[in-house]
Write a structure and sequence with these properties.
Chain lengths: 339, 253
């Protein structure tokens, strides 16, 4: 019975979606309500535009994550890390170059590294910095902004905030204290989710395994991207930019608006530069940067993931510190630098 | 169970195939550039190949392999709930559904209401090509080139009387006179999310007869006009011809 309900549920919803779209097509062919028809096609074009542009970047990220998962020996990486807290945090901040994952992939990876004894300062800096300080995101930021001040400031400020917050966490020496007890169970149980690299397996089958993890992660993270681009397209279709413009004028309000937008849209850091580009000209440069710096560290989807992995106190620090710091820096940019 | 791991994998693979097919169709038909800037073609080709590679990787081959993978599945234990999986599949199939079922259409004047319409593109990304626009023969300049040339030139009056030959959609801006309309194009640097409409005013006695969104080919001569406090180009029309939507409706700065 339950099987049947499940079956009906899936195909019911899928069928409904198809019928709705077909109805809309005939509606449009008949002339229909011109306002709605126009808005619907505009929405579709913008939604698909963002998705088409972003999907390959997301795929790159998830594939890299799959490869890291299968081919990298995390113990060896830990041995290479410096002992000094500052150097450790700095190393954590630039570790993203070797683990190129966006903010979706970084949470589980950091958790795994913590259970392997990675110092908190390194892990937290890695968690916050790697969604920006990695080759894929740097490439997509370059694609959107070129070598402009926004490009350099995004990298510099992200690294600065991540290392600073990492150092604050350096007072806590035992990484497992940051985690929720529940989050440890599946890892220490071993069998559920850690794929120990097994050199005995042929290379091809390990590659296939990495691809499968990548595909899984593409679905896992792709839904946040798709919901995010639908939201963004909806906003672009229905909210005139003059309304946004009114918000974007103030040097303070624009920052709050863009940071709120970054959280709500929850767009993957591999593509958020393209979204930010849409706001250049209407919003202050400081607010664009706060979107690009704060968004990858904290948004709806990463906050949800933080809550699943870290204890409440850690989550509060992980969210409030980057929020305050990026707000202040954006403010300084707007008032004193005037880009 | 209906959504056991094997069926889940099968549906995942089908959706990935669908996405790959959609990307391929966009590339082959050329309508890809209704959505993104042409400089990202290579990215989309790589994406299409990626979708097919991923689809083959998770295509369930034998019950044994699926089962083995299930045990090795990494930290997505929360996706194992059946209803969660259903949502995952539904959401990720949205681009395929929208992509194949909704009629393909580039942005038109209905997007101007929210995106705005500009007669002088002062955007930072437009700066460096001004000199290129200046060195072009006058009748080869498109709408964007003309605006750039005006932005770049020290004395725009040098353009007065030059022949103009532009293509774009008709847009009746509230700010222009009754015997004028705008010929516009959308310019985009990445994807339609950052598209903005730009245009040049056309002087024509029968301006009122042209409907919004109709694509036209305008020939005429350049005049100066002041618009929102800026000196912008304006074309005194000699001939206006109806044309189909060009294969490349957007301009890429």
């Amino acid at each position: 019975m339950k099987r049947l309900l499940n079956f009906l549920g899936v195909f019911g919803v899928a069928l409904l979606a198809v019928i709705l779209i077909l109805l809309f097509q005939s509606f449009m062919a008949g002339g229909g309500n011109l306002f709605l028809v126009n808005r619907f096609t505009t929405f579709t074009t913008i939604f698909l535009g963002i998705f088409i542009e972003a999907a390959p970047f997301l795929m790159l990220g998830t594939l890299a994550s799959g490869v890291v998962e299968i081919f990298f020996n995390q113990d060896a990486i830990r041995r290479l890390l410096p002992r000094n807290a500052f150097m450790g945090a700095l190393a954590g901040g630039i570790m993203g170059f070797f683990f190129p994952v966006c903010e979706c992939g970084v949470v589980p990876l950091t958790r795994r590294l913590f259970t392997k004894g990675l110092p908190p300062a390194v892990g937290v800096a890695f968690l916050l910095a790697s969604p920006v300080i990695n080759p894929i995101v740097i490439a997509s930021t370059y694609a959107a902004f070129g070598f402009s001040p926004v490009f350099w400031l995004r990298i510099g400020l992200s690294l600065f905030i991540a290392v600073t917050v990492g150092l604050i966490f350096a007072v806590q020496m035992r990484p497992e204290r940051l985690l929720r007890p529940v989050a440890l169970a599946p890892i220490q149980g071993g069998s559920v989710d850690f794929v120990e690299p097994t050199p005995t397996q042929p290379l091809l089958s390990r590659l296939q395994q990495a691809l499968r993890i990548g595909a899984d992660e593409f679905f896992e993270m792709g839904r946040y991207l798709i919901l995010g681009s639908m939201l963004a397209a909806l906003m672009q279709t229905f909210i005139p930019q003059t309304t946004l413009l009114a918000l974007g004028q103030g040097p303070v309000l624009s920052i709050i608006a863009m940071m709120a937008l970054a959280v709500i849209l929850s767009i993957c850091s591999t593509v958020d530069a393209f979204i930010a580009l849409a706001f250049v000209g209407t919003f202050s440069t400081g607010s664009i940067l706060s979107f690009l710096v704060f968004g990858p560290m904290v948004d709806i989807k990463s906050a949800l993931m933080y809550l699943q992995v870290f204890n409440r106190k850690t989550v509060i620090y992980l969210i409030s510190l980057p929020m305050l710091m990026s707000f202040l820096m954006a403010l300084i940019l707007n008032y004193y630098v005037g880009l | 169970m209906f959504l056991n791991t094997r069926n889940y994998r099968l549906l995942q693979a089908l959706i990935l195939l669908g996405l790959g097919a959609y990307f391929t169709w966009k590339i082959v038909s050329g309508t890809l550039f209704f959505y993104i800037n042409e400089r990202f073609l290579w990215l989309i080709i790589a994406g299409a190949i990626g979708f097919f590679v991923l689809a083959q990787a998770i295509w369930p081959r034998s019950a044994v392999e699926v089962d083995e993978h299930h045990h090795h599945d990494h930290d997505h234990e929360h996706t194992h709930g059946s209803s969660n999986r259903v949502w995952l599949l539904l959401i990720v199939s949205m681009p395929v559904l929208f992509g194949f079922l909704v009629p393909v259409q580039p942005l038109d004047t209905s997007a101007i209401e929210t995106k705005g319409f500009s007669t002088n593109a002062t955007l930072a990304s437009l700066n460096d090509s001004g000199s290129v626009a200046l060195s072009q023969p006058a009748d080869e300049r498109n709408v964007l080139d003309w605006i750039r040339a005006f932005n770049y030139s020290e004395d725009p009056s040098e353009f007065i009387g030059e022949p103009a030959d532009v293509v774009g959609f008709v847009y009746h801006d509230d700010r222009v006179d009754d015997d004028q309309f705008m010929v516009g194009r959308f310019a985009l640097s990445c994807c339609v999310a950052d598209a903005f409409a730009i245009g040049v005013a056309i002087d024509s006695p029968d301006a009122g007869e042209w409907k919004d969104n109709q694509w036209v080919h305008v020939r005429g001569t350049i005049e100066l006009a002041t618009f929102d406090g800026e000196i912008v180009p304006q074309i005194v029309a000699e001939s206006i011809k109806e044309v189909p939507v060009p294969p490349q409706p957007y301009l890429f700065p």
